[in-house]
Structures are given as structure tokens and as C-alpha cells.
Write a structure and sequence with these properties.
By secondary structure, this protein is an all-alpha fold. The chain has one helix and no strands. Its EC number is 1.-.-.-.
């Protein structure tokens, strides 16, 4: 099992956040296509302090 915990910082603006999200989904596609692979996505969007 692979668990990824990451803090990803984006520039202000919905457009940039959406582009990063799409890029991450594309990056994980090859791993999820393997037989028996499953994914649980949990996204927390936290404002900067």
C-alpha cells in the first residue's frame, strides 16, 4: 500500500488550484489502472495562516 501525504501550495485563484488538481489526477492515473488498485481521495483545503 502506498500512502501519500503532501502539502501543496498554489498561487491565489481558483484557476490555478483547479489546474494543480487536474495535474495530480493525471499523474496518479497509471498507478490506479493497475489490477486491484483502489484509491481514496481526501482533500482538505486550508487557508494560509
Amino acid at each position: 500500500m502506498l500512502t501519500v501525504i503532501a502539502e501543496i501550495r498554489t498561487r491565489p485563484g481558483q484557476h490555478h488550484r483547479q489546474a494543480v488538481s487536474i495535474s495530480l489526477r493525471k499523474s496518479f492515473q497509471p498507478f490506479l489502472k493497475k489490477r486491484g488498485a483502489t484509491a481514496t481521495r481526501r482533500w482538505w483545503i486550508m487557508p494560509r495562516a
